[in-house]
Amino acid sequence: MSEPWQGLPEPLADDVAGCWHSVFPEGVPGWLVSPEGMSETVIATAISRSLFLRQTLQRHLEHVRALLDPRPLTEPTTPDYLNSRWQEFLGSVDGEPALHTALRQFRMESQFRIIWRDLMRWADLAETMAATSAFADTCIDGALNWLYRDSCEQYGTPRGADPITGQESDQKMVVLGMGKLGGRELNVSSDIDLIFAFPGKGETVGGRRSLDNQQFFVRLGQRLIQALDQITADGFVFRVDMRLRPYGQSGALALSFAALETYYQDQGRDWERYAMVKARVVAGDQRAGRVLMDSLRPFVYRKYIDFSAFESLRSMKAMISREVRRQGMENNIKLGSGGIREIEFVVQAFQLIRGGRDRELQQRELLVILKELEALELLPPSVVQELREAYIFLRNLEHALQGMEDKQTQLLPEDALARARVAAIMGFDSWDECDQALQAHRKRVATHFANIIATEDDDQEDRDAPEEGWQEIWLAEMQEAAALEWLKARGYEKPEATLAELDELRANRTVQTLQTQGRRRLNQFMPMLLAKLTEVENPSETLSRVLQLVEAILRRTAYMVLLLENPGACTQLVRLCSESPWIARQLAETPLLLDELLNAESLYHPPAKAELQDDLRQQMLRIPFEDLEEQMESLRHFKKAHILRVAASELKGTLPLMKVSDYLTWIAEVVLDHVVEVAFANLVSRHGYPRRADGSACETDFAIIGYGKLGGIELGYTSDLDLVFVHKADPEQVTDGDKSIDNAVFYTRLGQRIVHILNTQTPSGQLYEVDMRLRPSGNSGLLVSTLQAFEKYQREDAWTWEHQALARARGVAGCKDTLEAFEAIRHDILCEKRDRQKLRDDVVDMREKMRASLGTPESQQAEVFHIKHDTGGIVDIEFMVQYLMLAWCFEHPELTQWSDNIRQMEELGRAGVLAVEDAEKLREAFISLRSTIHRRALQNLNSQVAGDAFPDERDYIRAMWKKVMIET
Fold it and tell me: Which CDD domains would you find in this protein's record (predicted)?
């Protein structure tokens, strides 16, 4: 008798033979093979294709029997069946823990059924997508209905105006499903993007105490997320992503219809239009949901033909392409070239452009829209056919990749066994055949995408070829004497050194071992680079700097292609490296930054803070909060990319010093805000939300206070961050999760997680170096203080220098209420009445100690001047300003409104504490000294200059020090 795995491809047969008896130690039960269409051979085929199916049979055979009783696997998985099956599970739910258990058992059963039918090809793509989406709808709506009733019993029923009649009525939540869930195209192992909404303002009635409607629905939303997302002993149901809601993770969890409509009308971004194309009411009040969707339709679909959609889609695709390059995800069938996302972009471009006029395009399912594009003659039938076939192939392949282990992935496998599984699922005899078909589809998709979405510039091939002599120089085909003469004639200031560096590069072991394609790209790139270098004043020196980058990308020659195909980017590269060795090093350390050079307009005009926030939000949308490593890498790239823009703008003169510091500070603030969100979400997923004394959950109640350069809005390119962490939660309370901990422990861990994210060295380097020594009691103090403890320390135990530091402190990230409470404490502390003589003595004494330890030794002062620490330098100005703030805020409380030296000096002049002329001259001297430090940083130089530098400024600062700190 033959074994059931005989006939399977060899690696799969061997694999099943090795596990068969561990899966079925007592043999295959009769009930499993008794339904028509089932047999041991069929079962062997299924477990050869999926570890998830195998492990479920091995560990949960009784659940498999339960799922087969109402319907065999050979029958289609319909929405009606899923709903009726959920009602059976719901019958045993008598509390929230039981709800969680029922949902997870329902998931295991449904997932087994859907993946089995898909991987065995008993279901086509349409059934798999519809079943997975219907399963999600059933879970979300089922959990919401149960939790809504339970919440009404606890807090009362929310009441407000009916969105249609305007009459007072009960209100229910509306849950919008975005992305593939909204389009009923969900993957077999996917997260779900949701937005929570409710009709309008009001409050609950009939409960123990009344709640504002928004509070009610935020709490309901939190419970719904926990019901679906929380990992328990039974697993989870869906990973829930709420970051597509207005304002992202920093926005309210649930918004009224009016708030949503106002947001999208006033602040809606292009990418949010793109997301809203798929939006669908998946759970809750369907009747009210239709009203909401009608109100948002004008935001998504313009009445006129809107060709601006092309540009926004190009920008989104460029962002995704950068991410693919950064993570090496060319094997990602969703995001890589010719992948699923490009088909989606093509289809949704037409929806956004013409959907307002052609109502047929206001549908969600991609394959349906493709038919409409053909019917409207917007795409030729041949293009539609190729895109349809590629989409079906890629989505089936995506399900094959995910169904093998019930794991969300779009990456092609690298090991032979997994490849054999995928090939078998896709109906091929070998991986090579499968891959060949895949590449053919991807090539066709990439071509159509380029024809439809790409810019005209992408198709221009009129690149100026470099003179032939550069090729001879690079390949060492020109005689040395002639080569030296050639270089010298074209402006190379050190031709001998240039030839030596080119010889060294050619002899580099990596260059010697390059594959054919890589060598070809290098041989194309180097002559172009050598020609471009003649456009700057110091080509030999600039070449030395650029070669750091060339060596870094020898194994990633796609970056050379980027520069070859974008001569403008190569021009920017040469220009920036010519002007700044610091920028050259940044590019060598992070070649992905080359993407920033593609758009000269954005390169030399960095975005304002609101745009920074939006940019970071878009970059982080698809990275789960729990994927801390990827979050950290993306944050580092975000910071480096935007700091490069600031540096480029400063070098070109489009940003003055004050604006440079503003932008560098904004970058840090945006990063810190996101780090707080990530760290907080990470801890909440484990321990729940901290509780307040009234039993309600804290949003965060946590804030980061910036001191020093961050607090003073004076960050430089390499500045560290002086931080203090505070919170205003009740430390005696505990969190509301299954693994609850004291609030005090929660916030300490939150602080530790934030420092870890900022400080850790990753392949992309360190995000920021963090200094926490300015917290109460310094390194011996608690990492995170309550606001009450912080205030008590400042009033009773702080030294004068700590009050000096407080003058430059301000809230920079975290909970708005906590930040406001800190500012009130800072104002009160700075406005305390002080003995001015004692204060002056303390400040002068501290300044002398700093000068002795950090300033230039007396024996070297004739040769060297330290711009920051020496007499007549920046710290003298800072200490004078801090003394005057502490001495006069009692009489002039308006002085506390600013934390930066520049505006504090201006305010001191306005208040009459300093003569206006003195305030202005000090300000000019301060800016002059700081500008020099910035410029030197871009040259990789320290803050020490010649001993005779800045004579006028130093004389004036010394005179003012004597006047303010000695003679007064």
Answer: NT_GlnE_GlnD_like (cd05401)
